[in-house]
Amino acid sequence: MKLFGIDIRVATNDECDAVELVICGNVSHFTDDVRTSCAACGAAIVHRPYVPARPPKVCMSCAVDMVGSTKH
Predict the structure, then answer these.
(1) Quick one: which of 39, 48, 46, 44 has its CA closest to 21?
(2) Considering just the CA atoms, what is the radius of gyration of the chain in Å?
(3) How many domains does the chain divide into?
(4) Are 63 and 21 in contact (CB under 8 A)?
(5) Quick one: which of 13, 35, 8 has its CA closest to 24?
(6) Rounded distance between C-alpha atoms, residue 60 and residue 45, angstroms
(7) C-beta atoms surrounding 8 within 10 Å
(8) Plot region of 10 (φ>0 → left; ψ -120 to 50 → alpha; else → beta)
(9) In angstroms, what CA-CA distances link 3 with 6, 8, 61?
(10) Where are the beta strands (DSSP E) in the chain?
(11) What are the backbone dihedrals phi and psi of residue 63, each rounded to the nearest 5 degrees, phi first?
């Protein structure tokens, strides 16, 4: 899949712990959302409780910067 011209591959449930990062939002929609900080910049983020544990959780701004810096 392409998103803004960048190739994005969505991981299957079996592959989730091996993904490079989890992109998180900053607005909570559910009472059980996990509130934490972006692993890159420290901004407040939220994610669902079932996201994979190992990969770093990052905000949208950092995700764009990270993905943009890897474009060729």
Answers:
(1) 39
(2) 13
(3) 1
(4) yes
(5) 35
(6) 9
(7) 10
(8) beta
(9) 5, 7, 15
(10) 2-3, 6-7, 22-24, 34-37, 44-47, 57-59
(11) -60, -45
59 token code pair: 């905000």
- pLDDT one digit per residue (tens) for the chain, 72 residues: 777 777 877 778 788 888 888 999 999 999 999 999 999 999 999 999 999 989 999 999 999 888 776 654
What's the domain range around 15?
A: 2-69
The token pair at 28 is: 């909570």
Instruction: Classify each residue of 25-35 as buried b or exposed e, where b means 16 or more C-beta atoms within 10 Å of its C-beta.
Output: eeeeeeeebee
Extract the tokens encoding 14: 């079996």
